[in-house]
Design goal:
By secondary structure, this protein is mainly α. Helices cover 72% and strands 0% of the residues. The protein folds into two domains: 58 residues, Arc Repressor Mutant, subunit A; 35 residues. It contains four helices and no strands. It is elongated and about 60 Å long.
């Protein structure tokens, strides 16, 4: 059995789209997806070389919806954590 993972074309396009759309470093996007930054950079370079004017790939609506729901859940967790932290520090200063 090979130790190398194979990624579908859809996964690659979604990863490239996420890297191009979001204002995050490639390393952060790659970490979120569980791939190496070098691999994501290679995919992005290959895509942009064959893409007219470097436009982002079409992301299927289902995968975009799934990604956005995950992002909303993450942001809610961060918000809740910050609310608790503010409450803790407000009590501590009294």
């Amino acid at each position: 059995m090979s130790g190398r993972r194979k990624f579908t074309k859809e996964f690659r396009l979604q990863a490239i789209g996420q890297a191009l759309e979001e204002q995050k470093p490639l390393s952060e996007v790659a970490r979120e997806l569980g791939i190496s930054p070098a691999l994501l950079s290679k995919w992005k370079t290959e895509y942009l070389a064959g893409s007219p004017q470097g436009t982002a790939p079409e992301v299927p609506p289902e995968s975009e919806l799934k990604r956005l729901r995950a992002e909303v859940a993450r942001l809610r967790q961060e918000r809740d954590f910050l609310k608790k932290a503010v409450g803790f520090f407000a009590q501590e200063s009294n």
